[in-house]
Amino acid sequence: MNWRQSARCRGTDPELFFPIGSSTSFATLVQSDEAKAVCGGCPVSRQCLEWALDRPVEGVWGGTTETERRAMRRRRA
Ligand code: SF4
Questions:
Q1: Is 71 among the domain residues?
Q2: 36 within a domain of the structure (yes/no)
Q3: Is 69 within a domain?
């Protein structure tokens, strides 16, 4: 995973990317949007997303939430 060396989230609080609570709660949605904003300018977001799509990881990866990745996996299947 050497793409992580170029990750924009390096140096940011990792907890931002792992909201706690219901995925539909307002606080979780706001936190997810803040994490996605970091991902939005990340030069390795595509690699990060592909990595996360291959694993059942929680949190925001590649600008997507776990729920969004689950839907992407279903569409790919
Ligand atoms: S896409 Fe987001 S979570 Fe993935 S490396 Fe970049 S900033 Fe970090």
A1: yes
A2: yes
A3: yes
C-beta of 42 in contact with ligand 1 (< 6 A): yes
Band (pLDDT 50/70/90 cuts) for residue 4 is very high
Give me the domain span that covers residue 32: 22-76
- Ligand 1 centre to CA of 4 (Å) is 8
The DSSP bridge partners found for residue 61 are 64
Please give the tally of structural domains in the chain.
Answer: 1
Question: Is 67 a domain residue?
Answer: yes
- What is the position in ligand 1's atom list of the atom closest to the CA of 45? 1
Which atom number of ligand 1 is nearest to the Cα of residue 52? 4
Query: Cα–Cα distance between 60 and 48 in angstroms, integer?
Result: 10
Tens of pLDDT, residues 11-49: 999 999 999 988 889 999 999 999 999 999 999 999 999
The torsion angles phi and psi of 11, rounded to 5 degrees, stand at 90, -10
